[in-house]
């Protein structure tokens, strides 16, 4: 029986806690955050949980909450990751994070290298495993892309694409934290180009696709995501020597954000206009509605009606198989916004990200991992990928893969 500490009681942490409450191999879930109300609201709907208030700025505070746990699930902002990693090592616990921190070095790929090498060695020394990038993207996207590699002998290009086309009748550009969403819109973006990790311009290098099940073609652009960094660093060991890797994002959020980015309205630098000093980013965020979190809020939005409820989650990997050029095309299918609410009282964004995250936790509690050290989710073995995808099927999250000649 496993004891778990879930740090952070937002959408991701709450979903993991709820799913683990159903797992027979879990004896106790400690739900911890600095927000007592959020902790109390979560604990009261769970059977195996208790709440704690934790200051994530203080490693000792985390260690106290983590005493005796088998796994720490870190659902806090990425700046807190070093503190949580240190706490996990101190109490000799496994570790799961939804992303990779960016505070260990000024060059983000170097941050990931430090996690692989330094923290990887330290977790291996205590016989534990840490895994980063465990949501939907990164997370399921990494598993799906790694799974594509079994159909190739060599890989040239990997293109990952996410289109989020759920649009409410009310003004709601983002179904998750507007602050986080807009931060992602201006963060440095990375791609593997000719075998080298390079920075690309956010909102640049557009591609257009007409995805299955979508009404019209969609334009997607460069976007800050972990996958390209993970896979770029692991290109030779896990991705058949891939030369070019890109992540593209499109949909309502991009359509809203790209003009703001180009106009400089997402800048975090102070500006003065007509005698008033302000930060453009802060002004924009202050005018955005918060993402719906509670069941009553979501129901109200759905009762008003949606303009559309569609999306796509697609990988195109090209290379060779048996001496012939091929493309491995993989689509992910999952419940949309309306169906997710009918099933679980949550949005499609919450369903996919949270549920996919909880499956990585499920693999911990069922002792499905065979590795120690620190890995990212693209580094699962094919056998681990298959276990993960089998769990996903039970939630109607499935992959459809087709190998096409070129």
UniProtKB/TrEMBL annotation:
This is Saccharopine dehydrogenase NADP-binding domain-containing protein. Residues 4-100 form the Saccharopine dehydrogenase NADP binding domain. It holds the Pfam family Sacchrp_dh_NADP. It comes from the Bacteria. The lineage of its organism: Bacteria, Bacillati, Bacillota, Clostridia, Peptostreptococcales. It comes from Hominibacterium faecale.
